[in-house]
Amino acid sequence: MSLDRLSLSGLRAFAHPGVYDFEREAGQHFVIDVVVHLDLGPAAGGDALAETIHYGELAEDIVHAVERDPVELIETVAERVAWLVLARREARAVEVTVHKPEAPIPVPFEDVSVTIRRRRTRAVIAVGSNLGDREGTIRQAVLALAAHPGIRIVEASPLVVTPALKVEGVDHEAPEYLNAVLGVETTLSARALLAELHRIEDAHGRTREQRWGDRTLDLDIVTFGELRSEDPRLSLPHPRAHERVFVLAPWAAMDEEAVLPGHGRVVDLLTEVLRNPGTEVSPYPAEPLA
Ligand code: A4P
Ligand code: MG
């Protein structure tokens, strides 16, 4: 079923953005249309303002944000407005159009505008480390993710200790892993999220000499909404998550209702994996990750 919509159109803001100096000095009008996709059922059912988005406050917030902090491109204005809308818990997706009817175009014209669509997707990220200050690195990675304006950490599993799984099998000589999973909401695309995970891995000294080799930090996308992909650069859901105790055990501890699309309930997958002789996972006592 498609979502309900709340629309605000023709919002006027006077700001000083623009690529040229004369635009920044004189200022000009921007006209903004916003369509928020959300579920209005709970608000209508209880006649409850708290269950929906207050359109008056939203309109003021948008106009203030555009007027307060000028940027050069209408693309950037649109992006900021989208973030601002999606910061509201109820908003699941948003379409933003920014018009610049007084743009410096040397021929007669009526309007110029850009339209962007952004949505918030629920994703699960697996975290692993078996070199260096494992807990410290994982905590820094969580902070780096939380600091990204397009990522919100919704829940975090406990940390667990697992023996290193190598291509040849479990390696008890290799340093043990700390593993965890994170539930996040993001306005990024799956590819942009993966790029951000790689950036954080690199910032923590991740090297890639050997497949499944020891590492300071590994960040994988386990699921990205309902998205399915067999692209080797980004396979979704993660093609090995269903057979890995170091993903399933923390995930089941974080969310006992979790489902891995295409494979079923995470608790059931975990029960299955724990039947394999030699499968080991133990708790790691620590403060919650988030
Ligand atoms: N890639 C494709 N799909 C994804 C995805 N959903 N998430 C591509 C993340 N990356 C994905 O990854 C190799 C390539 O996979 C990337 O370029 C990306 O575009 P990598 O992180 O550079 O290398 P990797 O992690 O060694 O490879 P791989 O095959 O993803 O490894 P796994 O399957 O994640 O296993 N043992 C314990 N106890 N705990 C662990 O956490 N982790 C691994 C890594 C092995 N053994 C482990 C653990
Ligand atoms: Mg990886």
Q: What would you say this structure looks like, in words?
A:
The chain is of the alpha+beta class. It folds into 2 domains: 4-119, GTP Cyclohydrolase I, domain 2 (2-Layer Sandwich), CATH 3.30.1130; 121-283, 2-Layer Sandwich (Alpha-Beta Plaits). The protein contains 8 helices and 16 strands. It has helices at residues 21-26, 41-46, 55-68, 74-86, 134-147, 190-203, 245-254, 266-274, and strands spanning 4-15, 28-38, 93-99, 113-119, 121-129, 151-156, 160-162, 164-166, 169-171, 177-186, 218-224, 229-231, 234-236, 259-260, 264-265, 282-283. The strands form 5 sheets. Strands 5, 6, 7, 10, 11 and 16 form a 6-stranded antiparallel beta sheet that branches. Strand 12 (229-231) and strand 13 form a beta hairpin. Helix 3 (55-68) runs antiparallel to helix 4 (74-86) and helix 7 (245-254) crosses helix 8. Magnesium ion binds next to strand 11.
